[in-house]
Amino acid sequence: MAYSVHGPKAVSGGAGARLRRGEAFYLVEIVRGMAITMRHLLYNMFHSSTMPTLEYPDERPEHGPWLRGRHRLMKREDGSPRCVACQMCATICPADCISILAQDDDRPDVEKSPESFEINLLRCVYCGMCVEACPCDAIRMDTGIFELAADSREAFIVDREFLLNNTTDGVNR
Ligand code: SF4
Ligand code: SF4
Question: What is the CATH T-level fold of the domain 72-164, as seen in this structure?
């Protein structure tokens, strides 16, 4: 007596015999799959230099200029922000993650400047719309920085000084 999905039945022939052949075929496929896995495993162990993977973070990927990395604020020649606090970037941002506090500026050719400028990187979706909307090329996403790691939520809210001092070498400082 044997058991099938329909209950106990004899498997001396017919459907029972076909089931056993199917099971045997399935086992062969498992063994064949394991052999392929082991072949790749052993090959990769001894040919690691040909693998399309990187020893990150010791090896770092090269990105094209189209990568939208962490933002930076551009500076004028005197080191002050090029931003005129027009709020265009904050207005267009779909994630509502830019906060700007404007202040009157004493310089004759600058009406306003940002007293504070914050971006909440946890909310940002890296769409680049803030860069597109800026009328004076004051914000860019060309730092090459794609790594975001911190041990508190507050650390992801980057301020004006942080953004002014981001560089384009892709190094997360
Ligand atoms: S990249 Fe997009 S989501 Fe991020 S701050 Fe700019 S507009 Fe907002
Ligand atoms: S759009 Fe440009 S100039 Fe206007 S607030 Fe944003 S960064 Fe500053």
Answer: Alpha-Beta Plaits (3.30.70)
Q: What is the pTM of this model?
A: 0.73
Residue 123 CA to its chain's centroid (Å): 13
94-135 residue pLDDT tens:
999 999 999 999 898 899 999 999 999 999 999 999 999 999
Q: Is 74 in the pocket of ligand 1 (CB under 6 A)?
A: no
Burial (0-12, 13-18, 19+ Cβ within 10 Å), 162: middle
Q: Which two tokens stand for residue 62?
A: 């090269």
Ligand 1 centroid distance, CA of 123 (Å) = 8
